[in-house]
Amino acid sequence: MGETRVDLLHLLEDLRDAYPGALEETILTEIVANSLDSGARRIQLAADAATAGLVVVDDGSGMRRRELARYHDIASSAKTRGQGIGFAGVGIKLGLLVCEEVLTETRRGKTHVATRWHLASRHRAPWKWIPPLRMVAERGTAVRLRLRNPLSPLLDAGFVEAVLRRHYQPLFDPFFAPVLVPCYPSGVTVEVNGRALEPEEIALETAPLEIRAARKRKPSALGYLMRAPEPLPEERRGLAISTLGKVIKHGWDWLGVTPIWPTGSSSRRRCPGSSPRGATSATRPRRPAGAWRGPWSATSSACCTTWPTTFRCSPRSSRRAPEGSDDCRSGRVGVASTGARSSRPPSCRRAR
Q: Which residue in 137, 172, 196, 344 is a FRET match for 301, CA 20 to 30 A apart?
């Protein structure tokens, strides 16, 4: 009798390709997401180029022996669907593609166990129990990645910090601290090579935004609009949505719309639907199908945190740049908003 075989290497490569970012970013982001899901209050990351190793230690709830055994199975997770921000231990499993070995140690109550795991061939990824290396103090989980490439960006502390600030920006933004208190009552401290990552204050002009679902008085999501004196950098443009402090959507593409870009100059931005003074119909930029008309420029910034609820975005009190104004044409108006399953940015409507 035959049996079904799985090309494990090909499966992991397909899983890697399903993520939009670089593989190293995905690994790091998902490992930290698992730490946050475990209730960690402190997450320590240590990148050491000399040993080609990256160690992530948290003080979360840890795992029992049986849970650690299941942790090595593909598409297996003890989490409830729809809860948390990690996805079935994807970060660790994708780590097999770039690591000589993955060592995991966990401690919960009287349980203190560890395993060593590696990808031996296209079809085999054996793991075995090993004595704990005492990377975890009282409770929590530690992961040590021994990387194949000594020049991997995961060994660069600067890269690690930049990825964390980009994918977990609300955790380092004081504006969202009141929103995240119910999720992390004791707060979350993230350290890279022994240095705690400090909160970042937004130096740009902002206007607060509240989004309410139906007739509820309590906001379903909070955020802000952002305006910059210069065109915003590429990574800050668009509308971003986050949940539990993790940015899950960012930019314009995920909305299924195309912002209008000016023609002839890359240093200035015009408001969608507006045209330069004196422009004729032949020189005006055409509005692509599905593009927005409204007062917000294509160089908008996103920064947010949300709850899983459907709502309509209609912030009457938010500041708007008059259509055709200097701010609108120069692209100095940005949008940063919050809310789950939002179909469009505030004060914008689809072109008919």
A: 196
